[in-house]
Amino acid sequence: MICIERIYNKALKNDVSNGYIVRILIDRLWPRGLKREDANIDLWEKDIAPSITLRKWYSHDEKKWEEFKSKYVEELKKRNYG
Fold first, then answer.
1. What is the rounded CA–CA span in Å between residue 54 and residue 28?
2. Mind listing the pLDDT tens digit for each residue in 42-58?
3. Which residue among 11, 35, 51, 64 is the one 20 to 30 A from 17 at the CA level?
4. pTM score, two decimals?
5. Are 42 and 22 in contact (CB under 8 A)?
6. Which among 56, 46, 45, 47 has a CA at the least distance from the CA of 78?
7. Among the listed residues 8, 3, 55, the one whose alpha carbon sits nearest the alpha carbon of residue 28
8. Domain ranges of the chain
9. Residues β-bridged to residue 43
10. What's the gap between Cα 10 and its chain centre?
11. Of the candidates 37, 49, 2, which has an alpha carbon nearest to the alpha carbon of residue 23?
């Protein structure tokens, strides 16, 4: 199962009853105000994060979500991730 959550949420290793949770940060920028030792992440995957241009265009506008997803998938395909 894949779950999406904010990096600022506390990591709970017992969220999944049948296994270990792997926390992966997918962002080009390190989260503001968060120390690396407090992040409790297993991987930081900068290369598969949305481009800065796409992220700025989206600007967390829920009305743009569907179009953002399509554009992001296209970016991933161009980078041979999809």
1. 12
2. 899 999 999 999 999 99
3. 35
4. 0.72
5. yes
6. 47
7. 55
8. 1-49, 51-82
9. 24
10. 15
11. 2
Mind listing the pLDDT tens digit for each residue in 1-35?
777 888 888 766 555 555 667 889 999 999 999 99
Q: Which two tokens stand for residue 21?
A: 């949770």
HEC readout, the chain: CCCCCCCCCCCCCCCCCCCCCCCEECCCCCCCCCCHHHHCCCEECCCCCCCHHHHHHHCCCHHHHHHHHHHHHHHHHHCCCC
More confident site: 54 or 81? 54
CA distances from 9 to 40, 41, 64 (A): 10, 11, 24
